[in-house]
Amino acid sequence: MPEGQIIKALSGYYYVHEEGSNQIWQCRARGVFKKRGISPLVGDYVSFEPSSNGEGTVTEIAKRRNELIRPPIANVDQALLVFSIEEPEFNQILLDKFIVHIEKADITPIICLTKLDLAATLDGIPEEMEIYQKIGYEVFITSSKTKIGLSDVEEYLKGKTTVFAGQSGVGKSTLLNELDPSLQIETGEISLKLGRGRHTTRHVELIRLPSGGMVADTPGFSQLDFSSIEAEELSGLFLEFRDYSEQCKFRGCLHQNEPSCAVKSAVEKEEISSQRYQNYLQFLVDIQSEKQKRRY
Ligand SMILES: Nc1nc2c(ncn2[C@@H]2O[C@H](COP(=O)(O)OP(=O)(O)O)[C@@H](O)[C@H]2O)c(=O)[nH]1
Ligand SMILES: [Mg+2]
Ligand SMILES: [Zn+2]
Predict the structure, then answer these.
(1) Secondary structure of residue 289 in the 3-state scheme
(2) Ligand 1 atom at shortest distance from the alpha carbon of 176
(3) In this structure, are 210 and 86 located in the same domain?
(4) pLDDT tens digits, residue range 251-271?
């Protein structure tokens, strides 16, 4: 049976790129998936059965390496977390929220700071970026307007499947258009009145870039709550806490109010960024209070 990868899902159809060919097959999913509560995702490697009308039926889904629910996509190597320096203004708590969710899904986060042309001087680059570089995250600083940094991003996407994530209006679609001008993805002018971009990307689709690599522009990560994350696992999703955690006095230390906490002393010694730690505490409280609510 032919095999391929789902590159688009729209209105109950799955568009399967047949392996070793350029053909795209419009497929339905076999009924049994629904019964078992499984829905095929963009990025899934599948077997499919061509039918006489030129369409096909997805008959099997290969085991996923990872998956995200919103946006619905599977088998991703890395997530490009796109944040603009201005319009909208850089938001570190949102960046940390993205990182936590991406780390949880076992996908590598990469940070891309856009709209450098809007930073008045180079001093306008948020100094927080150094924190992330020190943790070991790749950071790119770009402007689609002046074309700065675009080839570095392009190089990093080669041979990988990358999902673009970030608030509406930060310049994801514009960046993709720069990487492949034939795409002509709709971009949104910032509404001055609302101060945010229009939602112009409506479905998830994997696109093959001319330079190699697959990318997904997405309608956004709508659900960034912590319902799927346990308090005990949160600190493992802050990578720079990991080595310290092992030295805390109490096993399962949440680095909150416990005595002899190695994470807290690392914050005091400025070995861990206090902003990152504050965001950690904020998320921890969110998780704990969500749990409380579910209990009653
Ligand atoms: N000044 C400036 N504006 C940009 C840049 N990149 C995108 N924009 C603008 O930001 C707005 C939102 O861009 P868009 O790509 O639709 O954002 P998306 O919602 O993340 O896909 C549009 O008006 C773009 O023209 C940039 O590098 N510099
Ligand atoms: Mg867009
Ligand atoms: Zn601790």
Answers:
(1) helix
(2) 15
(3) yes
(4) 999 999 999 999 999 999 999
